[in-house]
Design brief:
Nucleotidyltransferase, domain 5; 2 domains
Length: 254
């Protein structure tokens, strides 16, 4: 295993409490399997191309799917972001994640929602996110690519951490409803007004310039190739890949 990526004992110690308990026959080494899952997602591999050092590729795939359905990666991301501490300043934005051409079948009628849609940029999904003052994601939400930023904001801004004092967003979040919702919770909205607004609310330009942190966050997430390009058919497995990337990039760094 010396020539491939392997999670440290310290990293495993922080996330092991969120793994499901093994019943009956003990599971194959969690450290080795999770390291293989991370390797595949980061490098954009097909599961069958995972290095042999991580064990059978079917074990990696089956464990990833099973834990995704059980919400394991969701719990890990939520726990790590909560443990990192709350920030008074948050930022909200969204980005498109291009779907691979084989995902075109997801648009057929009669199937369960897969959160894939078609926009000018082609077939894609949209990741809505809130990050803290250090540029670390604290809330993530996946929709189809054509869904408006307002819908994502309705979900994410309704569940902000306690102690939030400022929210920074671009013009895409300039709406009376969003502003009113923040004001009612004593949260300052740093959102530039749309150019066609008749009455233009003021905002702190110097504070708004810090919004580059959330752009940097998206760029780091897209460095993981199975996040930048969607290969997963199921929305929950794709979301799990995003949560794994977010956890290891921002909260499990050595």
């Amino acid at each position: 295993m010396s020539d491939v990526f392997l999670l440290s004992e310290s990293q495993m110690g922080r996330i092991t409490p969120y793994f499901p308990l093994a019943h009956g026959v003990p599971r194959v080494d969690d450290r080795r399997v999770l390291s293989g899952i991370v390797y595949v997602i980061r490098n954009g591999l097909q599961w069958k191309d995972a290095p042999e050092a991580y064990g059978p590729h079917k074990t990696l795939y089956n464990r990833f799917i099973r834990w995704s359905r059980l919400g394991v990666f969701d719990r890990i991301f939520a726990a790590l972001s909560e443990r990192a501490g709350r920030s008074k300043r948050l930022m909200i934005d969204a980005t498109h994640l291009k779907a691979h051409r084989t995902e075109a079948s997801l648009l057929k009628k009669g199937l369960f929602p897969r959160h894939v849609g078609r926009t000018k940029g082609g077939l894609n999904s949209k990741l809505h996110a809130v990050c803290d003052g250090q540029g670390r994601p604290v809330r993530l939400y996946l929709t189809a690519g054509q869904v408006s930023d307002f819908k994502g904001a309705d979900i994410l801004l309704a569940d902000l951490p306690e102690g939030t004092e400022e929210v920074i967003g671009d013009r895409g979040y300039d709406s009376n409803r969003i502003r009113r919702s923040l004001v009612e919770r004593n949260i300052t909205a740093c959102i530039p007004p749309r150019k066609n607004r008749k009455s233009k609310p003021s905002y702190n330009w110097h504070l708004y310039k810090k919004r580059h942190l959330i752009e940097n966050m998206f760029a780091k997430l897209k460095d993981w190739r199975r996040v930048a390009t969607r290969y997963d058919r199921c929305a929950h497995t794709f979301m799990s890949a995003i949560q794994i990337a977010a956890s290891f990039i921002f909260y499990l760094k050595e």
